[in-house]
Structure formats: C-alpha cells, structure tokens
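Lecture notes, unit on protein representations.

Consider one protein chain, 57 amino acids long.
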Amino acid sequence: MNPIELEWQHLKKDELSGQMFDDELDLAYAVINGIQARGERGNYNTERVKFYSNSTP
C-alpha cells in the first residue's frame, strides 16, 4: 500500500467512521476537516488545492 492509500485508510478509520452523510458535499467537508485535524495532531501543515476544469456542465 502506498503512503497516500495508507493515509486514506487512517482518515476513514479515525475521522469518518460511524458518520452518515446526507450528500457528497457533506462528505467532502468531513474529509477536509479530517485532513486538517490529522495535520494538527501530527504537527504538519495541510493545504487545500482546487483543481479547475475547462469543461462546462
């Protein structure tokens, strides 16, 4: 398992387990908050990066 997969497993187990989400947006915010919480506990910086698409819906 690569480091990103391992981190994702820990995020799911430690931050998201047992929670129900009404929609994808709630899940996205929970993931963002979980990553920030893990960063604070591990004493490392986290940064949110937005990727933009050229296509229109």
